[in-house]
């Protein structure tokens, strides 16, 4: 990724998409009066030279100070004095850390990237400065001082923390699967933000960053704001955030419970209130890696997370957006503790879709992965409600649902579990198999059904015949009830026709 940043970008002009290179004509036409240049020059110098007492994190005075300076920079003024600082190669080693801090402070100045014609020169200077900081962060040796950490976190916060105005999604969702066809919203500031994210990633991952000191600045407030950014519509930003969050979780052990709790709260808001969030898949990718590292036996906290968060995540209509990652997390829990299979399968049955066929196919896919890691004792606890549900899926008029349910018999482990418990399972699903074999409209479903019937018949002919006899008897009883019901309605109609002229109530024995 850093090759893309350094290898394709010349040192003088921007080649990022959507950000034109500065030209002499554009800079000439964008200049203002000499008085305006002096005012902006003073503003920039204030930001670059301000001590940390002014630029400290969480200081309201500082926030107003930076906003005031940025409001001037984002206006129509163009600074002639926002010039690049010397390169790290041009200063002695003893002065490099001071120059690093000056460059970091310089990058605290914000620009308006929604208008590609504004401040072209200044944007390019800042971008090149950020690239130098990334390179320095990689090549430097020696622990970062507390002052450096303060300035780094301050600069990153100023640049990446912002509010989103998400586009409404109601018209984009069709069975929760058509969102992938829409073009994601790309942030016009991404060529600039990408370098800031790369800088933050290298800072967190650097062995020169002492976690004991850095945790004072990469604190709970910083983590919460970072988690809020996962709702970005730009997938490139979410990819960086995912990697950075994983690094923070790995490096700052003291923050781990807080991060898990904060992600939980975001999921609760998503599941039970909005059903709208862009970063659920990325959160689940991080959690999948975290779950993989859980020690055994599993803590009660982690089991509660499974029951209260992961299983209810099957409820939203947009499940298709993150189902692959969710299924991986669920499967990790079963592999960690096979006794959880019963809880998971019953949870899937609880949230099983009734009218959404594409979502039902996803449930059947996940069910196969869970059953593959399920042992016989756990399977026996849940097989009755499970195969009642599978029986409904077998009779689905949507051929993909019926076909996917029949594919369960292609899995050797699942087939063995079914064979071992055939005396319980076959009576439950036999009516569905018989109905499919008689008159299902799809030829593939019809053929698969015959194959499954043959498996049971070859395995236990006596059981198969007894189920067949019971089905025929039940069918005869149903026909009798149907005929009796039709006879009653016919009698009602006859009596009603005879008494049509009377206002007396009609009693039918």
TrEMBL record:
Chain segments carrying region Disordered: 1-40
GO biological process entries: signal transduction
Location in the cell: Cytoplasm
Ranges annotated as biased composition (Low complexity): 20-30
GO cellular component terms, A-Z: cytoplasm; protein phosphatase type 2A complex
Function: The B regulatory subunit might modulate substrate selectivity and catalytic activity, and also might direct the localization of the catalytic enzyme to a particular subcellular compartment.
Family: Belongs to the phosphatase 2A regulatory subunit B56 family.
Name listed for the protein in its UniProt record: Serine/threonine protein phosphatase 2A regulatory subunit
Organism, scientific name: Sesamum indicum
Gene encoding the protein: LOC105168362
């Amino acid at each position: 990724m850093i090759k893309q940043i350094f290898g394709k970008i010349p040192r003088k002009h921007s080649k990022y998409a959507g950000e034109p290179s500065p030209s002499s004509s554009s800079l000439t036409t964008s200049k203002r009066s000499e008085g305006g240049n002096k005012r902006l020059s003073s503003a920039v110098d204030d930001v670059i030279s301000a001590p940390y007492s002014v630029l400290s994190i969480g200081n309201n005075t500082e926030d107003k100070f930076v906003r005031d300076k940025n409001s001037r920079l984002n206006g129509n003024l163009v600074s002639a004095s926002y010039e690049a600082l010397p390169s790290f190669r041009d200063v002695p080693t003893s002065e490099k850390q001071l120059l690093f801090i000056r460059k970091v402070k310089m990058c605290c100045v914000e620009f308006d990237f929604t208008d590609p014609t504004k401040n072209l020169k200044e944007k390019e200077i800042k971008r090149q400065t950020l690239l130098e900081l990334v390179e320095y962060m990689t090549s430097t040796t020696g622990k970062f001082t507390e002052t450096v950490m303060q300035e780094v976190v301050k600069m990153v916060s100023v640049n990446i923390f912002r509010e989103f105005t998400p586009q409404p999604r109601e018209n984009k969702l069709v069975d929760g699967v058509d969102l992938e066809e829409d073009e994601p919203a790309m942030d016009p500031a991404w060529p600039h933000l990408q370098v800031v994210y790369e800088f933050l990633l290298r800072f967190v991952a650097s062995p020169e960053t002492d976690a004991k000191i850095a945790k004072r600045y990469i604190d709970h407030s910083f983590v919460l704001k970072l988690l809020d950014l996962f709702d970005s519509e730009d997938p490139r930003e979410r990819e960086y955030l995912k990697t950075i969050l994983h690094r923070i979780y790995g490096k700052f052990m003291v923050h781990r419970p807080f991060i898990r709790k904060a992600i939980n709260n975001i999921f609760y808001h998503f599941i039970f209130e909005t059903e709208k969030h862009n970063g659920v898949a990325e959160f689940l990718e991080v959690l999948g890696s975290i779950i993989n590292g859980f020690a055994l036996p599993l803590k009660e906290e982690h089991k509660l997370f499974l029951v209260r968060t992961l299983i209810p995540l099957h409820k939203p209509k947009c499940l298709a957006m993150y189902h692959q990652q969710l299924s991986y997390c669920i499967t990790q829990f079963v592999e960690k503790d096979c006794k959880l299979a019963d809880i998971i399968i019953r949870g899937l049955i609880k949230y099983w879709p009734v009218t959404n066929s594409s979502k039902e196919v996803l449930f059947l896919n996940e069910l196969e992965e869970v059953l593959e890691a399920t042992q016989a004792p756990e399977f026996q606890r849940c097989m009755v409600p499970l195969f009642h549900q599978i029986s409904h899926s077998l009779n689905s008029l949507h051929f993909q649902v019926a076909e996917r349910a029949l594919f369960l018999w292609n899995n050797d482990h699942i087939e063995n579990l079914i064979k071992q418990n055939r005396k319980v399972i076959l009576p439950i699903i036999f009516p569905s198999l018989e109905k499919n074999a008689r008159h299902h409209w799809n030829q593939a479903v019809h053929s698969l059904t015959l194959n499954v019937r043959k498996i049971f018949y070859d395995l236990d002919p006596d059981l198969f015949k007894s189920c067949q006899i019971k089905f025929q008897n039940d069918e005869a009883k149903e026909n009798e009830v149907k005929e009796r019901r039709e006879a009653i309605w016919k009698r009602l109609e006859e009596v009603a026709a005879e008494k049509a002229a009377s206002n007396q109530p009609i009693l039918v024995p």
